[in-house]
Amino acid sequence: MAADRERENRSEPRSPRFRLDQPRPPRNRILPEYDPEAFGRLSERIARFLGTGRFIVWMTVVIILWVVWNIAAPDHLRFDQYPFIFLTLMLSLQASYAAPLILLAQNRQDDRDRVNLEQDRKQNERSIADTEYLTREIASLRMGLGEVATRDWIRSELQDLVKELEEQRAVFPSERSRGSDVGDR
User: Fold this and answer.
1) Which residues lie closer than 8 Å to 103 by C-beta, 6 or more apart?
2) For a Cys-Cys bond, which of 41, 86, 105, 130 suits 80, CB 3.0-4.6 Å?
3) Contact at 8 Å (CB) between 108 and 44?
4) Burial level of 47, CB count in 10 A (0-12/13-18/19+)?
């Protein structure tokens, strides 16, 4: 053991050990930092604007003005001659930025839809479980009511008892008719 420690002390210096209970110090970054949520919201706003009729109208107006200016203006004021290569470049640049922004907005919407569907699925599962529970409770109440005396059952039992008593009176006439004393009761 002592030889191992001596070997460790003689060997090259170790890299500093980082403590796991403390955060690392921040590093300088080459790329700028940005908030992904803010960028996502901005991309959704741009994508919503690109999908409107207002954008198409403005884009058409800009293209018509561009073409008319570069055809009708004096030669020294024209900035894009007839094949309108600069206009093509600008439209390509706009399309190259629009497509990823639209895809980013669609991905964010897909994520929101996925979360909403998951929540709906869980809510449906809870509703089904509640419905099954209530169905079992109603069935048990119905079974319990089968054993409970209802008003109709009590009425029919009382009617049967009255009939039975009337039959007994017919078979055994009451003792009053024979002149019994009131005090014998």
Assistant:
1) none
2) 86
3) yes
4) buried
CB atoms under 10 Å from CB of 128, counted, come to 10
How far is residue 53's CA from residue 174's CA, in Å, rounded to a whole number? 103
Per-residue HEC secondary structure of the chain comes to CHHHHHHHHHCCCCCCCCCCCCCCCCCCCCCCCCCHHHHHHHHHHHHHHHCCHHHHHHHHHHHHHHHHHHHHCCHHHCCCCCCCHHHHHHHHHHHHHHHHHHHHHHHHHHHHHHHHHHHHHHHHHHHHHHHHHHHHHHHHHHHHHHHCCCHHHHHHHHHHHHHHHHHHHHHCCCHHHHCCCCCCC
The pTM score is 0.52
Rounded to whole angstroms, the Cα distance separating 97 from 147 reads: 75
Give every CB contact of residue 40 below 8 A, 6+ residues apart in sequence. 104, 105, 108
Tens-digit pLDDT profile for residues 2-43: 555 555 555 555 666 777 888 888 888 888 887 888 888 988
Rg of the chain, C-alpha, whole Å: 47
Per-residue pLDDT of 138-173, as tens digits, reads 989 888 777 777 788 889 999 999 999 998 888 887
Please report where in the chains the tokens 């930025």 appear, as a residue. 97
Distance CA 169, CA 128 (A): 61
